[in-house]
């Protein structure tokens, strides 16, 4: 039976503590060697698996090493070079635009502010948060990907549906020192146990405090649908 703790803050802290124990080595799973590679990898990872991105970027990062390289390539060539990535044609355009804008407006350096990053093609708040956290050591938000979105709702940490609104709820209850790690912990837990289509509640370290737990609830709070 799953029952949330008395307050959202207590619930969030307990979730973080237990997941740290379950996933002590939790970290970003994209491969990159510098800020530009990080930015490109995160843009490519939208609606695509990190494994696929890592496979494609292995050759991509050998061919394109500077913002100028991306700016000077055609969208068609970039799309061909990232073939296999979801929406590769659109993302080819993003990569060229990112290269051009970094060269023209940021002296060839990946910017270090939320506003400048989200001005880049294909970069939303989620992507910008990842780049700030792992590229610039600036933590000013929580990255809300599909795992964080789903599991936060299942755990009763938010009732919001949009990532931006979910992030605001989480910022109020997750300890600031855990903002960066919170995302990685929930991603690991989502991949291992709490999947979108199959939640293995019998194997879950959070089952007793999860209001969506199958033994206690007939409804998946992430979707609002019956289990």
Automatic annotation (TrEMBL):
Its UniProt entry gives the catalysed reaction(s) as:
Hydrolyzes mismatched double-stranded DNA and polynucleotides, releasing free thymine; 2'-deoxyribonucleotide-(2'-deoxyribose 5'-phosphate)-2'-deoxyribonucleotide-DNA = a 3'-end 2'-deoxyribonucleotide-(2,3-dehydro-2,3-deoxyribose 5'-phosphate)-DNA + a 5'-end 5'-phospho-2'-deoxyribonucleoside-DNA + H(+)
What family does this belong to?
Belongs to the Nth/MutY family.
State what this protein does. DNA repair enzyme that has both DNA N-glycosylase activity and AP-lyase activity. The DNA N-glycosylase activity releases various damaged pyrimidines from DNA by cleaving the N-glycosidic bond, leaving an AP (apurinic/apyrimidinic) site. The AP-lyase activity cleaves the phosphodiester bond 3' to the AP site by a beta-elimination, leaving a 3'-terminal unsaturated sugar and a product with a terminal 5'-phosphate.
This protein is called: Endonuclease III
Keywords from UniProt, A to Z, are: 4Fe-4S, DNA damage, DNA repair, DNA-binding, Endonuclease, Glycosidase, Hydrolase, Iron, Iron-sulfur, Lyase, Metal-binding, Nuclease
- In its UniProt entry, the species of origin is given as Haloarcula salinisoli
Q: Which cofactor does it need?
A: [4Fe-4S] cluster
User: Domain of life of the organism in this record?
Assistant: Archaea
């Amino acid at each position: 039976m799953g029952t949330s703790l008395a307050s959202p803050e207590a619930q969030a802290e307990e979730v973080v503590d237990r997941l740290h124990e379950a996933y002590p080595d939790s970290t970003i799973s994209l491969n990159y060697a510098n800020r530009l590679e990080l930015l490109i990898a995160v843009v490519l990872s939208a609606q695509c698996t990190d494994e696929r991105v890592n496979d494609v970027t292995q050759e991509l990062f050998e061919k394109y090493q500077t913002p100028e390289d991306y700016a000077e390539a055609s969208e068609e060539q970039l799309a061909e070079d990232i073939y296999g990535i979801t929406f590769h044609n659109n993302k080819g355009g993003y990569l060229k635009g990112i290269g051009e804008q970094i060269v023209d407006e940021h002296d060839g350096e990946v910017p270090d502010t939320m506003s400048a990053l989200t001005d880049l093609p294909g970069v939303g708040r989620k992507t910008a948060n990842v780049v700030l956290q792992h590229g610039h050591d600036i933590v000013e938000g929580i990255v809300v990907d599909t795992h964080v979105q789903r599991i936060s709702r299942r755990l009763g940490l938010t009732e919001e549906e949009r990532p931006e609104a979910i992030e605001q709820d989480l910022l109020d209850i997750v300890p600031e020192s855990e903002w960066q790690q919170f995302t990685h912990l929930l991603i690991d837990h989502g991949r291992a146990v709490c999947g979108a289509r199959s939640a293995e509640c019998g194997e879950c370290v959070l089952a007793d405090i999860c209001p969506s737990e199958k033994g206690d609830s007939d409804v998946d709070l992430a979707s609002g649908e019956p289990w």
